[in-house]
Model the fold of this input.
Amino acid sequence: MSVFTACIVQTHSGPYDKEGNLTRAIRAMEEAHAKGASLILFPEMFLTGYMIRDKLAELAEALEDGPAVSALRAKAKELSMGVVVGLPVLDQEGGKPHNSVIFIDRDGTIAGAAHKTHMFGGEEKMFDPGNQIRAFDTSFGRVGILVCYDGEFPETARSLALDGAEILCMCAANMSPFEDYHAVYMRARAMENMVHTLYCNYVGDEKRFHYCGQSCAYDPAGKPLAEAGTREETMLYVPVDLSLREGPLRDLNYLKNRRKELYHRDLL
Done:
């Protein structure tokens, strides 16, 4: 689907209140659908809140048949809407849960999931990191997911672009004093990889963290498509036209014009 409207939901999350967060997600889906959006994004760990270490295992869900995931899959199919949302996912091998973002396609299937690969600020005490960076096919195009801190490493976005990603969705719980980091990174990731970037962050306070918003979206030339402030809850509506990767941008084909023989072996 080369042209569509995405909705980025910049909001807070109720810690431990999975039922309440799920209800808010479904209402946001209905509102976005009524306004013509066919893809919607929520922040990192939205369904449970981020600071839930003492009940993490209790609130984590299985990827395929967890109750909140199943409810979102049913609603996605009902509305024919894609959903990108963060939650803790149980590890299939019995380890610690993953900090995950899943992509539910418009037919209600889970098209892909990303388990956060780069741990920040002691997250390794709570989560097992993911060990794979791969893009996946959806009805919207080929998509890559970045989970917050993952997007601060250029190698992650570049790996997804080399795997064919046309759209990068980044879901975050970014907080003060790092207000300006992610918007800068998302614009750079768009330009250097010639992809659309959609970035969704929290606002508000959760225990010791103050979340700094600044959700945004950029086209493959780095043109801002939507930008939010640092405090307000809002729903950004973003026009996505995948054909923008063609035309003049073809002369800036950074992926094709790389000279791998010159780079440090750890970058290959």
User: Anything to note?
Assistant: The mean pLDDT is 95. The two ends are 31 Å apart (CA to CA). The longest strand covers residues 3-10.
